[in-house]
Amino acid sequence: MSESHCRVLWSEQVAVAVLPPEIDISIADAVRDELLAVVNQSPVALIADMSHTTFCDSAGVRTLVRTFRRATEGGTKMRLVVATPAVERVLQITGVDRLIETYPNVAAALGSSSNGGGG
Questions:
Q1: Partners of 33 in the beta sheet?
Q2: At how many degrees (to 10) do helices 28-39 and 58-73 cross?
Q3: What pLDDT sits at residue 112?
Q4: Euclidean distance between CA atoms 38 and 67, whole angstroms
Q5: Helix (H, G, I), strand (E, B) or coil at 16
Q6: How does pLDDT run across 21-60, given as a tens digit for each residue?
Q7: What's the DSSP call for residue 7?
Q8: Cβ neighbours for 61, distance < 8 A, ≥ 6 positions apart
Q9: Cα 43 from Cα 82, distance rounded (Å)
Q10: What dotted CATH number matches 7-114?
Q11: Helices then strands (H, E): number in the chain?
Q12: What is the pLDDT of residue 117?
C-alpha cells in the first residue's frame, strides 16, 4: 500500500508525525509502519501529533505502544499531542498517558524536546 496516513515534518532532529483523524484496525498497521520508518531515521524525538485524531481503538493504542518501545530502544524520545477528549480518555483508560508523555499542542511538545525532556 503506497497511501501515506501520516504527514511527517522535521524541525532539526525532531520529527513531528501528524496522525490521521481515525486510527483503527483498518489502518493501524500502516500507521505503525510509517512511524517506525521515522524512528529508523534516528530522530532525537518523535512527536506523534494526534491533535486532529478523534478516534483511536485498541489497534491504534497498540501502534502507539509498539512505536514507543522501538523509539525508546533506539534512544528516541516519543511524545504525544492529544487534543480531543475521546482520545484523551482512551489513553487514560489504557494507561498509555502514563507511559508516553502527552502535551496539549505541538509547540509544548517541541519545547519539551528542545529542553532535553525527561528520561
A1: none
A2: 10
A3: 72
A4: 10
A5: strand
A6: 999 999 999 999 999 999 999 999 999 999 999 999 999 9
A7: E
A8: 90, 91, 94, 96
A9: 21
A10: 3.30.750.24
A11: 5, 7
A12: 43
Check: CB of residue 87 under 8 Å from CB of residue 56: yes
> What is the identity of the amino acid at 73?
E
Beta-carbon contacts of residue 115 (< 8 Å; ≥ 6 apart): none
Name the grid cell of 34: 510509517
Residues 5-25: tens digit of each pLDDT: 899 999 999 999 999 999 999
Torsion angle of C-alpha atoms 95, 96, 97, 99, degrees rounded to 10: 100
Its pTM stands at 0.90
| Single-letter amino acid code for the residue at 96 | V
What the block records as the C-alpha cell of 50 is 494526534
Continuous segment of H or E residues that includes residue 119? none
